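call fold(seq) -> tokens
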Amino acid sequence: MATVGIILFPGTNCERETHAALTFAGLSTRWLPAWSCDLADFNACDAYVIPGGFSYQDRVRAGAIAATSRIVDWLRAANDHQKPILGICNGCQILAQSGIIPNTMLAANQTGTQTTGFICEWVYVSVSSNTVFTQGIETVLPIPINHGEGRFLFKTPADAIPVMQYCEPDGTQTDASNPNGSTQNIAAVTNAAGNVLAMMPHPERGYLTRQLPHHIAPNQGTILKQNPQAPGPWHVLFHNLATQLTHSSVTHA
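ret:
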């Protein structure tokens, strides 16, 4: 069974939900605390996830301190070998700060010129299948966001490789559907190889149908009567990772 390393920093707070989403997809997980993990344990993992939270209390800037840690140096080497890497919310910020996602930063949320502060709500995103995590999705999905610094900015427009973009339920991208003023309504990006996914929304909070609020899934009661553990819209992201890792292990066996 493939093993996914869950990287922990002081202030990480979404690791349990992330572990649950990964194991529901049939993956094994390993905790990788930045303060005590050794290189052998790190290298034993087939893929990596940096969950959400507030690493080092978001001091200096969200993700800035974590990005200087030894374990992120190891993550750069894993990226060089094109191992799958997923950064969620604070994990996304760390990937940008570290340069694993190059020429990218996450700034404070704002609408026009007005800073909006921390946002906690459900939104819709259109998804592109240009990463190992999103292959075959190509649709509009609901997902929760919880962040204060989620506005994607890029050194040049060419540096942006969007994977998810905020939109209306019908897929239309509008200013009103952009919750944080992000460039091009971007909610998630990838690198040129497509092995890294840096996303501000939280897929681990939508891998089961029962996690969705009633206004998003009004018929969930019927679904849950038939199957209390019915997969939600974001199970496919973790399932895609499991499929990719299984295929890779067979190919290299």
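The domain at 3-251 is CATH 3.40.50.880 (Rossmann fold).
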